Write the structure tokens for this entry.
Amino acid sequence: MDYRLLREATLTGVRQGRISRADACDAHPELLRAARSYSEATGEPCPLCGDGPLVLVRYVFGPRLPPNGRCVVTDGDWDRIRRRKGDFTCYVVEVCSDCSWNHLRVRFGVPGAR
């Protein structure tokens, strides 16, 4: 599922004053830590502050993974997930470490071993 329309609605809401910047820039400290350590650079500027680099953090949830999910960064991480039994869900979150903007970009299923 793609969340681009919701993202644009949120950004428009902030620009028009219907959504406070504090509500839009509310990244959890653990998400900010993951953004600094376990992320993929997009090459895009933050859509809200325009200063910070926008990065993607990928969390996978599923059987026998920690309750807070697992950050997936490398191809090796993906391979290990796919070898596990069960079905998994990946959430890709865009994050700006400078202003704490964060938004769910996409969610998709990851089939594991059968």
About this structure: The chain has four helices and five strands.
